[in-house]
Amino acid sequence: MSFNHRVCIIASSIDKSPSEIPQSFVFDEAFRLSRKGLDIHIVTLRLEREIASYGMKFHGITRRPKLRTLHFLVRNLIDYPFISLSRNPLRIYWESLYALSVSRVIERYNLDLMHAHFAYPEGLAGVLAKERIKRPLIVTIHGYDLLTEPTVGYGLRLHKHYDLIIKSVLRKADAIILASKALYKEASRILSNNEINKIHLISNGVDVGKFNPSIDGTEIKRLYKAEDKYIVFTARHHRPVYGIAYLIMAAKLVISRKKDVVFIIGGDGPLLNYHKELAGKLGIKDHILFTGAIPRNIIPKYYAASDIVVVPSLQESWGLAATEAMACGKPVIASNVGGLPDQIIDGTNGFLVPPRDPKAIADRILYLLENPSVAKRMGRNGRELAEEKYNIEKRVDKIIEIYRRLLEK
Hints:
Blueprint: E1 6-10, H1 24-35, E2 39-47, E3 51-53, E4 56-61, H2 66-75, H3 89-109, E5 113-117, H4 119-133, E6 137-140, H5 160-172, E7 175-178, H6 181-190, E8 199-201, H7 218-223, E9 230-235, H8 244-255, E10 261-266, H9 272-281, E11 288-292, H10 299-305, E12 308-311, H11 320-327, E13 332-335, H12 340-343, E14 350-353, H13 358-370, H14 372-389, H15 392-408
Parallel strand pairs: 1-2, 1-5, 2-4, 5-6, 6-7, 7-8, 9-10, 9-12, 10-11, 12-13, 13-14
Antiparallel strand pairs: 3-4
């Protein structure tokens, strides 16, 4: 599908290589848009110069004269919810500087439309820039900007200022892309009946060639001396919302019945040391292997080495780890929250369990370990679903069609 237009992607912390972790899902999508013939310009929220990488141009923000930025800010005050202006003035200044940088890139390269990833700060930057450059704005919602989990302080909308900003962004966007029914339901509560038709429900996707059942996981098994053991794997940031503590508590229950199991927990984050201490207190530290951050080019091998993948989140807008595991032909045990039920059909390609329930996680792990034929069947089913519904190429084609419709208008 060829579509020769110029797109400004607003992504605050994206890196310039597919091997980097920050906003890697945005990079994967943008890269494929570029390969399909679009001229892609990405504006980050970093002080850096323009650079070309992987066929795309990356633009950082530059320090504009303060008076120019302040003038731009004053012109756009009307686009802010009034209460949100009581925040730290420096933050509002940086929001305006980001929007000004976006508008300058669009004007310099005569770009056709804006696509912001996350409603804040990217979507807000798009709304503010739109008043100046009059281009269509698409906003992709990724979760933290729309869903909340108050028990662990997850979600921007727990703060009234940002709740109002995000609602304003959704109303002013020309199109909104959501991956899951949970996100659609939440967005529908914000928008009027006349605005709901600008919501596009498009499942997230993965590279089903990069993530596939034929990958050899022997290297990972050797690395952790687990050639003769079952491996249960998860890769999440060590933050409260991802529920890793509940998986560690489940591991205690599993290991009390089966000693030939190791749990490999990938990822970094503020709770990493706490989780290590928890494993020690439970007396299972020899069965829990913490890897730290895993390079993206290696993570398919971890899925390949695993027998079961667990996604124990307390809230999850989609859960790309589940999609990657499915594409690798692995059964997935996931919390029945957010967008995970969109992917996991209970009893078909894995199991859904209540969040915060170590016993339910342990029971399902033990069932799959004791019934390997069922685990293999679920893995095959997951692979078929990934090929049919969660191929990133299909997602990108649908996004291009949204671009086309907006520009035709």
